[in-house]
Amino acid sequence: RSTVLADAVRDLLPPGPLLVRDLGCGTGSMGRWLAPRLARPGGQHWVLHDRDPVVLSHAVASLPGGVTGGAGPGDLTGFGADLLAGTSLITASALLDLLTADEMDALAAVCTAAGCPVLFTLTVSGRVRLHPEDPLDAEIGAAFDDHQRRDENGRRMLGPDAPAAAAAAFARHGA
Ligand SMILES: C[S@@+](CC[C@H](N)C(=O)[O-])C[C@H]1O[C@@H](n2cnc3c(N)ncnc32)[C@H](O)[C@@H]1O
Questions:
Q1: CB 147 near ligand 1, within 6 Å
Q2: What is the CATH number of domain 3-125+159-172?
Q3: Which class for 2: exposed (0-12), middle (13-18), buried (19 or more C-beta within 10 A)?
Q4: pLDDT in tens, 17-76
């Protein structure tokens, strides 16, 4: 993740205490990376969301020093605009490619309704580069993309289509 991004987001945030929501937080890597970079008077409160209660408990236990926080509702597919109201920053990392097109659209709708900055990072994009290079790279890259687009129990994940789907969904909802 780029410190340029963190600086750009910090400049967009309102003064005073922050309420940050990390969607699909996993074990909390976003908080460990971003919270120190947002440091400000008034403090930060992080609400962590993940549908996996085990990783969520790790994330809560590993919130960085000087940050308050806790667990919020887990599965973001049920989130309504009311849940995100009052949030200063919505963030997620390595999440969008796991969503379906409909879930992406619903997420963009509730984020747009919240009217706060949104920082989504580390999304599978379809650009695959392997080091060292090998003649099989293109085949391996295509197989990786196909796997990321897999259908799981009737849910077709966006995989490498996630960045374009996210941009289109946010535009559709007026962001
Ligand atoms: C690839 S991991 C990324 C974890 C963390 N954000 C990171 O960057 O290290 C994706 C996480 O999203 C969570 N997740 C996937 N779909 C979700 C959903 N619909 N609601 C909440 N969490 C979800 C998974 O449980 C998993 O912890």
A1: no
A2: 3.40.50.150
A3: exposed
A4: 999 999 999 999 999 999 999 987 789 999 999 999 999 999 999 999 989 999 999 999
